[in-house]
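Lab notebook, bench 4. The sequencing result for the construct came back, and we need a structural model before the next group meeting so we can plan mutations. Quick request posted to the team channel:

Model the 3D structure of this chain.
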Amino acid sequence: MVMWLACALLGWIGEAHGWAFRDDVWHNSVLLEEAAGVFHIHSRHGRYLLSLREARAICAYEGGALATIAQLREAQRAGLHNCVAGWLADARVAYPVTKASQKCSNGIVGVVDYGVRLNRSERWDAYCYRRKVGTCGGRHMETALNLSSPDYPGYAALRSCVWTIRVPVSKRVRLSFLDFDLERDKGCLADFLEVYDSYEDVSGLIDRFCGDDLPPVIVSTTNMMTLKFHSDASVGGRGFLAYYEAVDPPTTVSSLQDSRVDPPALPTNATAVNPSAFPHL
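Done. Here's the predicted structure in token form:
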């Protein structure tokens, strides 16, 4: 009974605050980071690889600056939680904790502050501050609709878009891609489109897509689906053009990877973009 109540409470908190609880660590939605203005970032080569100079450069590259300790505390009060230490503006290293666990902060709730670091070549991640981010997307209850990245074909830097789809409860969402061209990089850390089998972006991740390979047709397991698009400060592409429709549930269970069809013809107004290369830490 106690375990059931604990699980129910965790589920309620996750829905209320945009958090997800996995492996004894709370993970928050990217939307919460952007609402607070503070976001975590690390080198494309992995965690804890940035010197202070590199941390400043990568935040500037993403259209922001290293966050101050006050900005990180404000974000933590808004619900930002990340058990990863990062550089701040005054050569300080810290990280925000909203819910303590055995794997995070030794029971401390708040901002875990490592203080000002005398060795500016130490390797950490970074917390950047960028209040203004271009937004787009929307909430849709239509039974069929075209969706595209902002300004398709082509898209601007520093965009963050979320589309939530809800069709009649007896139906499923079938998502097909007509065109797809985002910056390609290992791990899809720069520009990407994520598809979630849920009505939010903290659970039910199906996959993250980038590059110019056309994603497979995806069918949800419920009547809801979420798409999240993000672009960084550098290379762009045509973006994506997709179509969703409400369909009857399948009679047999099959993997999403098997749900592939031949793609329709590329729209006539889609023109190729020759992106220039930008360095990115």
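Residues 29 and 240 are 23 Å apart (CA to CA).
Will bring this to the meeting.
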